[in-house]
Amino acid sequence: MTRGISAVKEVNKVRRLYIPRLVIGAPRGRSGKTTVTIGLLAALVYGAKKVVQSFKKGPDFIDPSWLSRVTGRACRNLDGFLMSRETIRSSFIRHSRDADVAVVEGAMGLFDGVDLEGSGSTAEIAKAIAAPVILVVDTTRMTRSVAPLVQGFMHFDPQVTVAGVILNQVARPRHEQMLRQALEKYCGIPVLGAVPKGKKLVIPDRHLGLIPAGERDELQQALEEIARVARECLDLNGLLAVARQAPPLVDIAGGVEAAGERPDTDGPVIGVFRDRAFSFYYPENLEALEGAGARLVYIDALQDTALPEVDALYIGGGFPEVFAAQLEANEGLRQDVRLAVEAGLPVYAECGGLMYLGRRLTWQGRTYQMCGALPFDVVMDGRPCGHGYEVVEVTGENPFFPTGSVIRGHEFHHSRLVNVDPELRCAFRVVRGCGIDGERDGLTCKRVLAAYNHIHALAVPQWAEALVGRARQWRRSRMV
Questions:
Q1: How do residues 87-121 score in pLDDT, each as one tens digit?
Q2: DSSP code for 83
Q3: pTM over 0.90
Q4: Is residue 351 annotated as a catalytic residue, yes or no?
Q5: What gap in Å lies between CA 4 and CA 10, rounded to an integer?
Q6: CATH hierarchy code of domain 269-479
Q7: Separation of alpha carbons 157 and 155, rounded Å
Q8: If both were cysteines, with which of 111, 285, 297, 381 could 457 make a disulfide (CB 3.0 to 4.6 Å apart)?
Q9: What homologous superfamily does CATH list for 7-252?
């Protein structure tokens, strides 16, 4: 097998791709999947000098930021609720074929999905890409019982291959010995790692979006320490051996190339707010805009005091509440955004971007001025107001989606809107989820669409073309 590039056999334009790969699953959430995955990636990259492509199951921005940091490659999300099995496989192949190994971090329990059939579960991702599963088991207050637990996961779905176990939170050597013996006797499955309770296989208690640039050296030191601990606790050779046993993936030659063309040098310019306050962007969304012909210009809402010359804006999610004082202090940019909206600039905003476009934001007893481009205020609550997948039907006129279409996405917000102008219209009827008030989402005003719903370009491919199309129209109108 060729090192560094997955081996490929091509027969009559049907390619068989040999991509070493693993899915990291667990019996339940909070078993240690994220820390074990980060440790494994760090050990492979820093110690074994492997090229590793990471993936995250389901909608998530935080874990992928860490996985991207460790591997030096953009982590990609694979989601069975938002994407078809063909889309999942195509995305996986496209981004893994030049890597030594691909690792998918699961979510929740291995078979947990949105319904009784487990739709959208980590197991469904494993089946879509024909990947062996490594089960991370929190062994706190458990000895021989680990065997029936693992045995159940091994045999629950014959299409899912549970190929190894990593023991987490092991109390002492005697505890580890008992666990290993039980799994060997009753399950016949290899133990490919054991992480003692005393080992600090942990990440700093903040995610990348909230860590100032000056702390990057501290981050790197933490990751190197995680890699060292992982090399001590994980059987890297055994894990790589399992990854290499994954069967070939069949793909039509040329079918996994990036969609669209590179940005048109004369194409419209879309400004993307991307900084510590607004950091929630799927890489596919940005790539889709470029593929549709846009040129992207990144804007720092904390530092840039004026809006550059753009033909549209894309303001993603993030943590505007944490940086509310700095956003308020940047009065010049806030005013420019408000005036641009009033002039009819196309704007697409998600969650944090929605909050930024409002009048005021109240958090922890203090109120901060935001853009004032849309007539509502925002209040932060101590618990989630919307959490999980969101499905909306487009029922009203808006700049980007045709009436009658159905959009799948996800939401996670602690904020709610108050003092909303009754004349402000909503374009979406919420079918699943919360949105703004449990019934509506997608505020529209002039050429603005602002929603709590986060979308993924692979699930909503028409979105990028629509936003770039509006940007082209705006550019032409200014050139007349």
A1: 999 999 999 999 999 999 999 999 999 999 999 99
A2: S
A3: yes
A4: yes
A5: 18
A6: 3.40.50.880
A7: 6
A8: 285
A9: P-loop containing nucleotide triphosphate hydrolases (3.40.50.300)
